[in-house]
């Protein structure tokens, strides 16, 4: 049996966010979620133990409870130092566990191949750790800031995680360190004190530990590069409806006072129709006529806001989230400036995005064409969507985890 301990109790002071760095969004998903998924995708890992701050246990449990297809897990309260936290987690490791992996929750870019290699190496040598060769020349400096030595660079490696060990060996190392009051910076250093050699496994420079805001930007760039052209997609929508008597004029879910309204099977909200087509187009899912045909009486007179919510759900089910909307209403009359802010609010709420991600504007045609002659109203929309997790895990504006919806 292989158990992975994921250390997620750090406060992340250098990030300057005021929250545990594993909760910070990376490509719209908390850092810890990326890490947990990587280990869950590794077939040789049987279960996970996430160790976090005592006051964050409930938040982590809520976060993991909303994720799909992850390995069996438990959450353990950590201590004031990383070593104390791992010691708490070790106490929860099943006695049948042959190999225990220890990994930093703030290293979300580790790949499955690396996890498999370090476990295989630990089976052979009892102790293994992922590392990369040091690129820079390293200097040893005295207390006054003077160089006293230049170690040969070809002997220097920067240690990372995961590190993997025979479980009984790792427990022995932690017991010895506790008895002698030794506080190490990683698990390998504790094992080394027992006289056991730790075998290095060549890792990747992409397996960075997110510690500073710059690390977060770099991790984001690496993830986007890996996602390729499917990361961001764009779609365009266009719709037009005739103005007729005895119909309400509904635009962006707002009833606009006017003597005429738009003719159509639903509420004929030309703005929302254009936005829906743009979203469906971005996801390569056809158009609104395909999903909500005007031959279906269920959609007769229906609010286009309700259908916009359904379009958002359709797009989300394909693994995309709405990134932004830019739309233009083409109408000679009536004047719409006073109603546009509410339109933007309605659209943002229906799509579950910030109002800053929605832009609505209106223009005339200087009296030209059907819109200029007051015969109808048209709308254009551009939408972008982003590939993301299908699990709805979010942080609110204060950085607090919002549990996934059931």
UniProtKB/TrEMBL annotation:
Its EC number is 4.6.1.12. Its cofactor is a divalent metal cation. Belongs to the IspD/TarI cytidylyltransferase family. IspD subfamily. It catalyses: 4-CDP-2-C-methyl-D-erythritol 2-phosphate = 2-C-methyl-D-erythritol 2,4-cyclic diphosphate + CMP. Pathway: Isoprenoid biosynthesis; isopentenyl diphosphate biosynthesis via DXP pathway; isopentenyl diphosphate from 1-deoxy-D-xylulose 5-phosphate: step 2/6; Isoprenoid biosynthesis; isopentenyl diphosphate biosynthesis via DXP pathway; isopentenyl diphosphate from 1-deoxy-D-xylulose 5-phosphate: step 4/6. The keyword Zinc does not apply. The keyword Transcription does not apply. This is Bifunctional enzyme IspD/IspF. SUPFAM superfamilies: IpsF-like, Nucleotide-diphospho-sugar transferases. Keywords: Isoprene biosynthesis, Lyase, Metal-binding, Multifunctional enzyme, Nucleotidyltransferase, Transferase. It holds the Pfam family YgbB. The gene is ispDF_3. PANTHER family: 2-C-METHYL-D-ERYTHRITOL 4-PHOSPHATE CYTIDYLYLTRANSFERASE, CHLOROPLASTIC (PTHR32125:SF4). GO terms for biological process: isopentenyl diphosphate biosynthetic process, methylerythritol 4-phosphate pathway; terpenoid biosynthetic process. One of its GO terms (molecular function) is metal ion binding. Residues 233-385 form the 2-C-methyl-D-erythritol 2,4-cyclodiphosphate synthase domain.
């Amino acid at each position: 049996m292989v158990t992975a301990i994921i250390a997620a109790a750090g406060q992340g002071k250098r990030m300057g966010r005021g929250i545990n760095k594993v909760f910070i969004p990376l490509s719209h998903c908390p850092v810890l979620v990326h890490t947990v998924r990587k280990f869950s995708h590794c077939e040789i890992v049987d279960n996970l133990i996430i160790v976090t701050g005592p006051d964050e246990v409930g938040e982590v449990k809520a976060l993991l409870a909303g994720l799909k297809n992850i390995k069996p897990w438990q959450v353990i309260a950590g201590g004031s130092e990383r070593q104390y936290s791992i010691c708490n987690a070790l106490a929860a490791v099943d006695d049948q566990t042959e190999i225990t992996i220890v990994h930093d929750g703030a290293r979300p870019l580790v790949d499955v191949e690396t996890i498999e290699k370090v476990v295989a190496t630990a089976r052979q040598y009892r102790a293994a750790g992922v590392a990369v060769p040091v690129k820079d020349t390293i200097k040893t400096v005295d207390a006054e800031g003077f160089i006293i030595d230049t170690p040969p660079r070809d002997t220097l490696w920067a240690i990372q995680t995961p590190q993997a060990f025979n479980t009984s060996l790792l427990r022995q190392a932690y017991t010895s360190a506790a008895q002698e009051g030794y506080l190490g910076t990683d698990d390998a250093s504790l094992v080394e004190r027992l006289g056991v050699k730790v075998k290095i496994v060549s890792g990747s420079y992409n397996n960075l530990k997110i510690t500073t805001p710059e690390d977060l930007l770099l991790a984001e760039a690496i993830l986007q590069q890996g996602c390729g052209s499917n990361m961001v997609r764009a779609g365009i929508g266009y719709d037009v409806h005739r103005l007729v008597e005895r119909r309400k004029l509904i635009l962006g879910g707002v009833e606009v006072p006017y003597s005429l309204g738009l003719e159509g099977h639903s509420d004929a909200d030309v703005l929302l129709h254009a936005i829906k087509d743009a979203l469906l187009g971005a996801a390569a899912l056809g158009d609104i006529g395909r999903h909500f045909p005007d031959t279906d009486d269920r959609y007769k007179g229906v609010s286009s806001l309700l259908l916009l919510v359904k379009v958002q759900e359709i797009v989300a089910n394909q693994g995309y989230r709405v990134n932004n909307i830019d739309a233009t209403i083409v109408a000679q009359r009536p004047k719409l400036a006073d109603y546009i802010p509410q339109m933007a609010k309605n659209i943002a709420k229906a799509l579950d995005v910030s109002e800053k991600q929605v832009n609505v504007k209106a223009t005339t045609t200087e009296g030209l064409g059907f819109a200029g002659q007051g015969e109808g109203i048209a709308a254009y929309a551009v939408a972008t969507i982003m590939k993301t997790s299908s699990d709805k895990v979010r942080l609110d504006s204060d950085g607090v985890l919002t549990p996934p919806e059931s």
